[in-house]
Amino acid sequence: MASFKDNLAENVTLEGAVMNGVLQGREAVLAQLAVVSGFYSERVDHFSFDSGDYHVEEYEAVVAGRPIRATATMHRDAAGKIDAVVVNHRPLSAVLTFSRLIAESPIGAESDPDRFYRPTGQTYQGLLDYADRQNATHPDA
After folding, report:
1. Computed from CA positions of residues 116, 117, 123, 128, in that sequence, does the dihedral angle turn out positive or negative?
2. Position 139 confidence tier, pLDDT thresholds 50, 70, 90
3. CA separation for the pair 60, 114 (Å, rounded)
4. Contact 12, 32 (CB under 8 A)
5. Which helix (H) or strand (E) holds 92?
6. Is the CB of residue 13 less than 8 Å from the CB of residue 87?
7. Whole-angstrom Cα distance, residue 53 to residue 95?
8. Rounded CA separation 65/42 (Å)
9. Separation between Cα atoms, residue 121 and residue 45, nearest integer Å
10. pLDDT at 93
11. E-assigned strand segments in 78-131
């Protein structure tokens, strides 16, 4: 069986809750996924299944000390290559934390300045404090 990387079409697109817009092209998607995967720790896969031309995965991990859950949906083209990937993370506080980390990474510096969360006047610590307050108010979120 070919690896995920080997199964990406040259024109693959990537969309996700941690970013604005659509990233296009195999090399661009691989570069972003390499950076993003470096932020994950303690990843636990919950399920994975195929339905027609789609493959779906559900997993959770820890990013910057915060729990995050994700659902990844991948579409395969007629040749069986993955031509579209959508990754939806939750909760929102974790999504914003993750987006900010990517914005501060080398891939974030190289990308469109509006692709990732870069709040004007807000520090990363301020974002973490906000996330902590949200999690304390809604511990089951």
Report:
1. negative
2. low
3. 26
4. no
5. helix 92-103
6. no
7. 27
8. 10
9. 36
10. 87
11. 82-90
Identify the band that residue 141 occupies on the pLDDT scale cut at 50, 70 and 90. very low
Average pLDDT over residues 24-39: 93
* Closest C-alpha to 45, from 27, 70, 26, 64: 70
In the block, tokens 């729990």 appear at 67
Type and span of the H or E element at 55: strand 54-63
- Which residue type does 26 have? R
With both helix axes pointing from N to C terminus, report the angle between 124-137 and 92-103 in degrees, rounded to the nearest 10.
Answer: 170
Which DSSP letter does residue 40 get?
A: E
Q: What is the pLDDT of residues 66-88, one digit of tens each?
A: 999 999 999 999 999 999 999 99
3-state secondary structure of 21: coil
101: enclosing H helix or E strand: helix 92-103
pLDDT band at 54 (very low <50, low <70, confident <90, very high): very high
Tokens for 118? 């870069």
Three-class SS of residue 98? helix
